[in-house]
Amino acid sequence: MRRDPIDIVPADPGWPAAYAEQHDRVTAALGEWLSGPVEHIGSTSVPGLPAKPIIDMLARVPQWEPSLTGPLTAALAGIGWVHAPEPADDAQRKWSFCYPDIAWRTHHLHLVGEDWDWRPLLKFRDHLRSHPDDAAEYARIKTELAAADRHDRPAYRAGKAPFIESILARL
Fold first, then answer.
1. What backbone phi and psi angles, to 5 degrees, belong to 141?
2. Nearest to 122 by CA among 51, 166, 59
3. Which pTM does this prediction carry?
4. Residue 107 main-chain phi, psi, to 5 deg
5. Within the chain, where are the H helices?
6. Most buried of 26, 69, 91, 96 (most Cβ within 10 A)?
7. Which residues contact 103 (CB under 8 A, 6 or more apart)?
8. In this structure, what DSSP letter does residue 43 have?
9. What is the 8-class DSSP label of residue 153?
10. Distance of CA 153 to the CA centre of its chain
């Protein structure tokens, strides 16, 4: 159960280092399964963008298979990560993991199969990195949504979706 509220904080220059530390650990733990690099995604991956202080990461395996849940969970548990299934994980054919725990996570790993549509996450990240006006608008939307209700994650996600979809439609 999540206890951390939705707090949007100013960009932290330490976020890239926090990502890099876990990148190396996750890459080593999942090395035999990975089909691509472990990526830094989400707002903390965009320099200067205010964000929830949670480092989002994306890792890919060749194919999503329920039989991999146990081995992947064990590999990540060995480096302190916790399997944190989200309601739509099975339907979306992905796994969610948190570090150091579910309630007060500092990192969130989205582990997907190559058949999952992961490319828009990188396109959106890269767009915000190179378009400061759009990044500022995204920050405004997120801050406004978090201020409306710091505990309603579904409303927060739904409120961001139209902006994200409009950017992706332009790309």
1. -60, -50
2. 59
3. 0.94
4. -135, 145
5. 15-30, 69-77, 89-92, 119-130, 132-148, 153-170
6. 26
7. 1, 2, 3, 4
8. G
9. H
10. 14
